[in-house]
User: What shape does this take?
Amino acid sequence: MDSIFDKNCHGDYSRRESGEGLLAEEEGTLWNRKETPTPTCNSFAVCLFQLSALVLVFLVGTLFGFHWRGDLDGLCSRHVSQYSTVMKEVGIQYSLQEFNGSLLKENVFRQDAGPDVDAAWESLGVNYRSIRVPPEDAEKSGLANDQVKINAKYGGGFPANVEGLHHLHCLNLLRQSLYYNYDYYHAKGEGPFTNNDYILRRHVSHCLDIVRQELMCTVDSGVLGQVWIYPENPEPYVDFNTQHRCKNFDAVRRWAEDNQLPQDPPSDFLQPPSEGDRIYIQMP
Assistant: This one.
């Protein structure tokens, strides 16, 4: 019995071993075929195409990189500022400028009320009239189609004010309203001072809050260092004469000056509101 069992087992084992060996050989042959494929024209073409695509992507990226480096001013202004006709017509550029932060050395903009200081502020464009925004720029400039329009026979478009010059107008009104200037301008009764005291106060507080919001919106993230003053007995003092990267204000001002709407426009210069246009029941 043992010999028969041994014989059968040995036979079964041999058959299994032989079958597994054949299977292993077959699998090994198949595996080796996969591992060492024969190069073909198709695979070479695919590799060449992929390499060409990578080179093309690199060249296009380099080209765009150089273009953006050349127009960083435009890219920056488009990112942080509302689009407007001014941006398109003037072209915003930046340059380093040092602020005059002197405490005791006054310049013409800081003088007490009088003709010289008024002329200096006037030269900044604080009282310029509106400009025209073409219809094709209106939506991109944040203007709705039902806002006030210029009559088509006078060129069409939208009347608008350059906002930065309005900020300066507000700052000028705050200067005129300082306690040591107020009586002078109130007595002259010009500009905002032609209104009664109730409206004048609201105008001043409106300007104060506009300047607040603008300063918060464009918060300066620079720092003010300190310097030593008084050699005999040194003490620290904040240095307000700092450098800033500023827009080309003079170019914007000149454009706004050159593109002012007529000082005395005809009575039908503005197009009457159309049916469905929003008309507010009070000042927004």
